[in-house]
Amino acid sequence: MAVVKQDPELGSKGGGLEKSVAEDLDPVTLTWKDVNVYAMPKKGCCNRGQKLESPKQILSNVSGMIKPGKLMAVMGASGAGKSTMLNVLTFRNRGSLIIQGDIRINGVVVDKTKIANISAYVQQDDLFIGSLTVREHLTFRALLRMDKRKSREQRLQKVEDVIYELGLKKCADTVIGIPGRLRGISGGEMKRLSFASDLLTNPPLMFCDEATSGLDSFMAYSVIQSLKALVQKGRTIICTIHQPPSEVFELFDEVFLLAEGRVAFSGPIPDALEFFKSNGHPSPVNYNPADHFILTLAIVPGKEKDCKAKVKDICDVYEASQPYLQMKEEIKTGSAQVSQSFVENTLNNTSRYGASLLQQVKSVFWRSWITSIRDPLIVRIKFVQTIFFSVILGLIYLKTDDEYSQEDIMNINGAIFVIITNLSFTNIFSVLNVFPLEIPIFLREYGSGLYGVGVYYLSKTLVEIPFLILIPVIFMSILYWMSGLVHDANSFLTATGIAVLIGNTAASFGYLVSAAVPSVTAALAIAPALMIPFLLFGGFFLNNGSTPDYLIWLKYLSWFSYGNEMLVVNQWEDVKNINCTSSTQCIPDGNSVIKNLSFDKDNFYLDLGLLFALFLGFRLISFITLYARARRSSS
Ligand SMILES: Nc1ncnc2c1ncn2[C@@H]1O[C@H](COP(=O)(O)OP(=O)(O)OP(=O)(O)O)[C@@H](O)[C@H]1O
């Protein structure tokens, strides 16, 4: 086993105990009694004639108790029911499970809101905006999560305190990092940052799912050491953990062993060793007790019958044991000693958000802005790519004189369509590559009451405005003049304005797809398939007058179509002469070009209005989709 040293960052007792941060904690005892959990069989599971399956029992009569100042490890083999128990206790991710049982804090029966008011839940997967530094991330959380009565100075002081407490001083000004794109802090530091984020609100009760997953033994030790320091200040912490090294396991005060959905033991580690020994399962000398418990309770493939019988035996003995019965009795009688102020002030707090609306807008806007300017992918895609493509396309469509020939008609119309296509793809894909990655973070932060959906969406929209104006302006300033579109300042400004609106509409479509799908991969797969019909009915590949009646609705949803008609009209409307050198029939002027494409000058303002409506419509639907998703995920 790897030798584990104490993390020098954490101070002598694993977290700067000598500089005890002023704590004002309500001591919390969490109890759960006779918890039964059932999963209903999936609808349509059975063929005709087959009997409907009965519900599957995941937890059976599980009871437990954890007192203030204790660090409890919930352990068991895979499938034992650890995550289910944590989800039941935190009232999260319960889905369609049927749950019975009694969960109390200091004797008061709790629900989802009450448990959220008193506790923090550090989930297994750490979700952060990677372009922020550790200090910036914590400041953002402190401004949004901490008690409204705390001043800005107090919040910033608390940020410094938790940085110190969790040994994050060394990396306080390092960016968190984006895997594969931006190097940042280590896995252990990231895990400690998760705890630090939740510590800002000073929760007396903490739940941690897989506190050490993905960490090496040194990092796992430093993380659990930090938790140990937190319980020593009076907190109550309950963690699920997989196979901790023995040095890490020793840091826990209590172990709660689950097997086949039943309690196999609950109490201090030495007592657990004694219990297993007295039931014929002594731990071998110099063997990690954690491994011994898990192996003893595991259902080994091929030996299922024997293993299940062994587990049943252990659970039967434990459930009939004096300590377990005593604990259940204590749970029953413990309800008497609860303070009224604790119930009213802490458990019954009903405000959804910790910060005012203005503070939410300011903080989320600030973070969105930092994210936009720091993420190298965004800046590179948005600026370098725009300049590169506009120069390349400009060279392809290069035209230096003011006169138009018959060949120029096709080239100019091609350049116009390329402008629309390029702006659409660039803007859609810059949204699709980034926004879906941010949605899980948004959902979690919304679920934790940091800010509302409207605040988030508004801030994102405001931050994007400069980019969504600048990019089309740069693109048009280069390509418009190189490709010889009509040399007139007014026409250029009109074309640029249309380009800005096209880019914004395309970005809104990107938001709509991103809000509706679960991942970047899905967004990147679905968006092009949805765009192709809009592109086909844009008036370039199919004459505007040839759209089949039954597909006309697709034309009305195509920003390519509105943009193309407006840009074509803007280009050709005032062109009085197009040179004709061949003997075949020539197109004499700009108006004839417009007519040949089945476009109409009089549609210009109608197109403008409809394009704007499309922009607003996509935004609105994406907002509603995001809102529905947020409500669903937090229910
Ligand atoms: N919603 C559900 N529907 C059906 N079965 C479920 C559901 N949730 C969990 N289970 C089943 O209940 C059992 C316990 O699952 P749980 O995820 O709680 O175990 P675990 O101890 O956390 O396992 P692991 O360590 O592998 O994550 C498993 O057999 C699992 O397949």
UniProtKB/TrEMBL annotation:
Cellular location(s): Membrane
The keyword 4Fe-4S belongs to this UniProt entry's keyword annotation: no
GO cellular component, one term: plasma membrane
A Pfam family this chain is assigned to: ABC2_membrane
Membrane association type: Multi-pass membrane protein
Alphabetized UniProt keyword annotations: ATP-binding, Membrane, Nucleotide-binding, Transmembrane, Transmembrane helix, Transport
Keyword Transmembrane helix recorded: yes
Membrane-spanning residues: 377-398, 410-435, 441-458, 465-486, 492-513, 520-542, 604-628
Location (main, coarse): membrane
GO molecular function, one term: ABC-type transporter activity
ABC transporter domain mapped to chain residues: 30-285
UniProt similarity note: Belongs to the ABC transporter superfamily. ABCG family. Eye pigment precursor importer (TC 3.A.1.204) subfamily.
Protein name (database record): ABC transporter domain-containing protein
